[in-house]
Amino acid sequence: AMRARGAQATDIVILVVAADDGVMPQTKEAIAHAKAAGVPLVVAINKIDKPEANPERVKQELVAEGVVPEEYGGDSPFIPVSAKAGTGIDDLLENVLLQAEILELKAPKDAAAKGLVIEARLDKGKGPVATILVQSGTLRRGDMLLAGSSFGRVRAMLDENGKPCQEAGPSIPVEIQGLSEVPSAGEEVIVVADERKAREIALFRQGKFRDVKLAKQQAVKLETMFENMGEGSIEARYLPIIIKADVQGSQEALSQSLMKLSTPEVKVQIVHAAVGGISETDINLAVASKAVVIGFNSRADALARKLAEANGVDIRYYNIIYDAVDEVKAAMSGMLTPEKKEEVTGLVEIRQVIQVSKVGSIAGCMVLEGIVKRSSRARLLRNNVVVWTGELDSLKRFKDDVKEVKGGFECGLSLKNYNDILVGDQLEIFEVTEVARTL
Question: How confident is the model at residue 175, as a pLDDT?
Answer without folding.
Answer: 94
